[in-house]
TrEMBL record:
Membrane topology reported for the UniProt record: Multi-pass membrane protein
Location relative to the cell: Membrane
Location (main, coarse): membrane
The protein's name in its UniProt record: Sulfate transporter CysZ
Keyword line: Membrane, Transmembrane, Transmembrane helix
Residues spanning the membrane: 41-65, 100-131, 152-170, 176-193, 221-251
Biological classification of the source: Bacteria, Pseudomonadati, Pseudomonadota, Betaproteobacteria, Burkholderiales
Domain of life: Bacteria
Native organism: Achromobacter anxifer
Amino acid sequence: MTALRTDSATPGNDRFSAAGAGAVSVGQAFKRALVSQCHPTMLFAVLLPFLIALVGCLLLLYLFWTPLNEWLAAEAARWDFVNRAEDWMLAMGLFSLKVYMVPVIAVAILLPVSGILGLAIAAVFVMPLVLRHVSHREYAGVTRQGKHATAVSVWNAIWVSLAFAAGWLLTLPLWLVPPMAIVLSIFWWAFAFSRMMRVDAIVEHASPAERKLILERNNGGFWTIGLICSLLNLLPPAWVILPVFSALVYAHYGLEALKRLREDRVIDV
């Protein structure tokens, strides 16, 4: 009896592969990620994206806080509904709307920029460390067949970061419509986590054809992980570990999916 590996699949094989891929549990990936996160190496890895995001946030505040506030104040002065609301609130003896609204909008612009910077750093620089850690311990049999991993990772981080920033800014006016502020925040961070981390989780080990197949078959699972991570992102204490922890979750989920895919492609003759 001989085991042959083939890149073609019959319809029956496709159904079996899909069933195997569907068996990769999101809960299992989170459980394994929690165990991996407690390892000293992964605890140390938390510092890199956190420190970069923190330094980036401080630099953004130092360089852009005053100009951004001045620009927003000038723009707000042109908005009729803001001026009417401002006049009404002052006439009622309440606080000035612009005094509080402008800084809040400035924070809503600058803070996510530092956050996506930390996530991009985790995807490009920390994910290889994460993959070395988990692949040696739990996925030693999953060989590396990826091509141009660094270039793919960097390009993916760039376009996802730009798309996130553009989408965040363009939909920022919708935050005035309750409860869109929370909904849009969850959506865009789910997009960032899913689109950025799922590629980096398998780019070193999966061939381009395998990567495409895994992303198609496990799209729902990747988005589910992104949604959970974006909900955790609403809790400020989670910001410290979330870039590395999300990388661990996606690494476990992606490598397990790749492992099952390759097992399904081995046919006994």
